[in-house]
Amino acid sequence: MALNQSLFRLLPPLSFLFPYSIPSIFQRLGPNPLKLFIFPAPKFKFLTYYYSSLPLTLDRNLYNNNILHNVFEPESHYTSLLEKSTHKTHLNQVHAQLYAFGLQNNGFIITKFIHVSCSLGEINYAHKVFDEFPNPYVFLWNALIRGYSSHNMFIEAIEMYNKMQEVYVSPDCFTFPHVLKACSGLSAVEFGKAVHAQVFRHGLESDVFVQNGLVSLYARCGKIEMARIIFHQLDERNIVSWTSMISGCAQNALPSEALRVFGEMRQSNVKPDWIVLVSVLRAYSDAGDLEQGKCVHSSVIKMGFEFELDLRIALTAMYAKCGQVMVAKILFNEMDGQDVILWNVMISGFAKNGHAGKAVELFKNMMTRNIRPDSVTVQSAILACAHVGSLEQARWMDDYVYHSEFRDDICVNTALIDMFAKCGSVELARKVFDRAIDRDVVLWSAIIVGYGLHGQAREAIDLFYAMKSAGVQPNDVTFIGLLTACNHSGLVKEGWELFHSIRDYDIEPRHQHYACLVDLLGRSGHLEKAYDFIQKMPIEPSVSIWGALLSACKIFRHVTLGEYAAERLFSLDPMNTGHYVQLSNLYASARMWGGVAKVRVLMKEKGLTKDLGYSMIEVNGKLLAFRMGDKSHPRSEEIYQELEMLDRKLLEAGFVPDAESALHDLDMEDKEVSLCNHSERLAIAYGLISTPAGTTLRITKNLRACVNCHSATKLISKLVNREIVVRDANRFHHFKDGFCSCGDFW
DNA sequence: GTAGGGTTAG
Hints:
Elements (H helix, E strand, L loop, with lengths): L1 H9 L1 H6 L4 H7 L18 H6 L7 H9 L5 H11 L3 H13 L6 H13 L3 H10 L5 H13 L3 H13 L8 H11 L3 H13 L6 H13 L3 H10 L5 H13 L3 H13 L6 H13 L3 H14 L5 H13 L3 H10 L5 H13 L3 H13 L6 H14 L2 H12 L7 H13 L3 H10 L5 H13 L3 H13 L6 H14 L2 H10 L9 H13 L3 H10 L6 H13 L3 H14 L4 H13 L3 H14 L7 E6 L2 E6 L8 H17 L6 H9 L11 H12 L6 E5 L5 H13 L4 E4 L4 E5 L2 E2 L6
Parallel strand pairs: 3-4
Antiparallel strand pairs: 1-2, 1-3, 4-5, 5-6
Helix pairs in contact: 6-8, 8-9, 8-10, 9-10, 10-11, 10-12, 11-12, 12-13, 12-14, 13-14, 14-15, 14-16, 15-16, 16-17, 16-18, 17-18, 18-19, 18-20, 20-21, 20-22, 21-22, 22-23, 22-24, 23-24, 24-25, 24-26, 25-26, 26-27, 26-28, 27-28, 28-29, 28-30, 29-30, 30-31, 30-32, 31-32, 32-33, 32-34, 33-34, 34-35, ...
This protein binds one DNA strand of 10 nucleotides through helix 8, helix 10, helix 12, helix 14 and helix 16.
């Protein structure tokens, strides 16, 4: 009788689900009576298996005895079981037991169950369990919303938030922090504002957790002013409020503002914890302030936070971003190297700071150590390949992606398109574009920019129309791609029209757009018009705008306007060698040798030297760099023989070297150097002797193509019957049959 | 049962 009574206490839900009367259940109880209770749960038939297999820790006799003696406390029992769970099979076993003992509608246990399932990454399972629960109340909704939000499944989190309101469950102060996080994760400020209104409607506006969520939402979405207003109204500002504000500024490219807020925080005697230091480090690294970054590093050690993994990763990132990649590598080596984000920091640090080759090496190293890369790792490795510029390396990367889980990752595909375009093959970029299933504005822009880089403006414009018919709205970068494409192809009319259509798409033209237009007008000889345009611009002209005007003045030998542009450049960007060289080139083209000398003095005064030119060529997957007059290569003799032969052929074909380039080069103190061994020519000669006939030569230069080499390369492509692809500091040139894809317009 | 942090495409 005692047994019956105890069981009855646990059984009521089953009596609804089961068509048999209670006595008949007992008649049917075999040697394993509990098994029978599994069946009422139609969605969880698999639980029979878990029930019949040995349960996790349940001692059935102990359990029965506990029931008999009325001391069984299911809530604490299952809380502790769930806390010990580390695998889905544990969840299955607990779940089976809950059904077996009729605890499947115990809100407390199910809330815990959902929470644990989510933290084990079994969110779909958690959702199914949630769906089985009759009329879930706010705790269960919160647990599920939290699960989605903490796994960056923001859309699902917001869907659940909407659904809970449809069934008239009121959100509470535990709901909003997660919903607000989801809004900021989606950058959905407008929706966030609606949620903000709901906060007031439910009278939760003075809850500090909710307030911090709001500060974080507005700050992370770039609405710093709004964040500040809420922040200043807070009655109680804790370290989380400060961190929300600081990280918001840091993430929105406002490092100095972030640091100012941090200063305020220190003034109000709030003690920093290690989490806030992560954002402070980010701010210092974005501001490029290595010295202050180092100070934070020493504070970290003083405060005893040096073993916090995430903080160490932030420190590594700081050194890497500030160009101290070798210091970063030391920190990297000190850690056990299992964390993917740590690898990402190091790979992108190498890739962006002139060690692209090392970045690729590190990625391969990671593969051999069986550490699973994520999408960011792959994107960083692809970026590294783009910087290396080796097409063979690029193909390897593409092959890797094609056979990996990242094949349909939109960001990875965008990076691949960019990589192929930068490695000289817009055709392969197009292949990636064609196979991409998902295409957003960034992916479309990548291929448009790619065509622009290669001077194929028609393709770029066609794709622009295709993009619009696919229902994708262009953005500011799309237009930069289109305008540079027009520049590189000399499509003045199209460029002009495109520029004037920017505002039709609700896009405010930025410096770069104006610079493109100045470039376009300037190159086509409309110098006065370009100057007029600069005068009438609604924004203050920047370095790139005056730079565009100066280089146009050089082409058309407009000295007075060029001098004016150069003056503006020298005041805005005094230490950039490029501007001085441009002005010197302008004087040289106008045969004003006095001017050339004047610039040289100016450069000496500032301690500036001309950047040395070099060219790289890829042969059999290996990159080789040549400097002007380089004789360091083991096959140097052969290279110079080939060079002489090329020169002879050029002369026979009637090639006349451009005297101006010669003069100004000599004037730039490269006295012993004649035209024929510009680094570009050396690379071509090496390519010719080390590859089979007909192979395309791929060359990368650090400077812009010089007039003389450009016309020589055109002719060489015809004489030796090779396609030669040259990437200069600005764009690609495809030389074939005596012509260049740029149409001599660069 | 709650909130803040590290890597990141054009």
